[in-house]
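In this supplementary section we document a worked example of the pipeline. Step one takes a protein sequence of length 374 as its only input; no multiple sequence alignment statistics are reported here. Step two produces a three-dimensional model, which step three serialises into structure tokens for compact storage. The input and output of this example are shown verbatim.
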Amino acid sequence: MSARTKPLRILHLVGATEDNGGILSTIRGLASGSEPGVWEHILWMRSSFLQTRKPHLACRYSHHALDESGSHLRLLFAAWRAWPDLQRLLTTEPCAVVHAHSRGSLPLAIRLARRRQPILFTNHAYARRTGLYRAAARVAGLRTVLLTPNHARHYGLEPQPGRIEIVSECGADRFFDAPVPVRPASAARPLQLVGIGNVVGWKKWELLLDAVHRLPAELRSRAQVTIWGPIPADRAARQYSEELRAAIQENGMQSHFRLAGPTAEVERTLARADWFVLPSTNDPCSVALIEALASGVPALVSASGGNIDIVQDNVTGAHFTPDSAESLSGRLEAILNGTLQPAPPDVIRASVAERSATVIAARYAALYRDMMGS
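The serialised model returned by step three reads:
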């Protein structure tokens, strides 16, 4: 670190209330993959935020910080109220770079850019209203990061060095460093299909339930689906989880489809998986997907979003038509019949080697240094 005595602070504007992975998984990956002693990653969160996952990161809080909302007016109002809190923080604790992540932090990022604060906005979403993000990418002084080439195409943006970059989400290094698990092959053993993610409507776990239910009875008896993930505290998520559990019961799928709740042992969970399944449409760049592939597990994903840039169809996994239970069921049938054979685990791992925490942390470190003019 030469003559520096203190690490360079990166303030990540998130504004979340729950520690449910996604953006936070990537930031933790950046922290763990960064050069020791050079960077200090700090989260800016809503006052009610409580860390439940590791490694713990330093946090600063605002009662008005907000990550997401279906209302743009609410997001703008929250940003207006949070602005004085952010100004005070940056006055008392100057930061080398501010890195905004959520839609709620975008208005703050635009204001900071106009004040010549080194500011970067990573877009983690597939928004329907793309014009706002195209306009933000044109704001002088605000750098935009998109996650995959297909993500950039969705917004009609082309990479421009110094303005618009493509940098993937990242999987934790431990998934790349551990030996690739050897999975037993036995006709008597049910095929273990694993999903990892929040139990929320946009993840479309009900599509996977429908697809398994469509399988011929003999094939369905050889499939076991386990969904690992928390139910967020909001009303919509609770209602969705109740409806999903009811559908499992009504379709007699209790022995084939299980909601297992959150897990802190993702490596062990993936070590027992034969296939990873991600039924959501336009998932921007799933961390769980990257970590599954890094574990040598093939992935069954919708042909949309970042999936088409991450999973090679019929090689490291398989694509199905987005929102089609029939297409998903057909791919499951091919897997169960043995007509769809993925590449060996080491080839699957190698396909996401450039998405490890160490590699992505180095990419961001280069961006940070460029923004600082060093």
